[in-house]
Amino acid sequence: MIAITKEKYDHYLDSLKFALYCISHPLDGFWDLTHEKRGTYAAANTILFLTLLIRVMKLKYTSFIFYRVYWEDLNVFLYIASVLFPLCLWVVGNWGLTTLFDGKGRLGQVYIATCYALTPYPLIQFPLMIFSNFVTVDEAEFYSMVSAISLFWAAVLIVTAMGQIHEFSAGKNILFTVASLFAMLVMIFILMIFFSMISQGVSYFISLGKEFLFRL
Fold first, then answer.
1. Over the stretch 42-89, which tens digit does the pLDDT of each residue have?
2. CA–CA separation, 173 vs 178, rounded Å?
3. How many CA atoms lie within 13 A of 41 on its CB side?
């Protein structure tokens, strides 16, 4: 039992370390991630957790010179959801569209590859968060540039990852990236209509119940 546990732990560490290879060799890395099964849900969840953790830590530990936080107006759960919700929409939207047009990637593979592509964010943002407390306003431009690089790098990796797991050409991959973003907007619109209808339905039955109690 101990040997099996150690084997699984070693496999988890290897899959987590493989994220570093993916961000430095994205074409080979994301191909092996899915086709050679080098990626795991455990490692993907760890990277996502670290991304969310760093994002929340930035609120408290980034210098106020670069990051002003109005705590009275902040809802941490909504702040975390601002990452998780678009991530879910992207995974479902991309998988749904590519499945209709001969995409090879499965839903789980899209999720794992997307999470692995987020690796530059915690890797860069954590030291940058610490660095922000030792620099002046004059160096704010450098901070902003490096922060933007982490986001741009992650975005490029996500697009590259989708091309590799679905086995799309560059042009087709870009087309479906744009289509996936549009699908996200469509899903948001549908969800807004859905929850609006539920809200109106609940309000109707509440008013109906009040009217009934009033007549009694």
1. 999 999 999 999 999 988 888 777 777 777 777 888 889 989 999 999
2. 9
3. 2
DSSP letters, 7-58, are: HHHHHHHHHHHHHHHHHHSHHHHHHHHHHS----HHHHHHHHHHHHHHHHHH
Q: Which residues contact 25 (CB under 8 A, 6 or more apart)?
A: none
Contact (CB, 8 A) for 128 and 76:
no
Q: Provide the residue type at 142 as one letter.
A: F
In the chain, the amino acid numbered 191 is L
Q: Is-contact 172 162, C-beta < 8 A?
A: no
DSSP H or E stretch at residue 188: helix 170-215
CB half-sphere exposure, 213, CA atoms < 13 A: 6
pLDDT of residue 1 exceeding 60, the answer is: no
What DSSP assignment string belongs to 104-141?
Answer: ---HHHHHHHHHHHTTHHHHHHHHHHHHGGG--GGGHH
In contact, 31 and 39? CB cutoff 8 Å: no
What the block records as the tokens of 111 is 């999720």
Question: What is the widest separation between alpha-carbon atoms in the chain?
Answer: 73
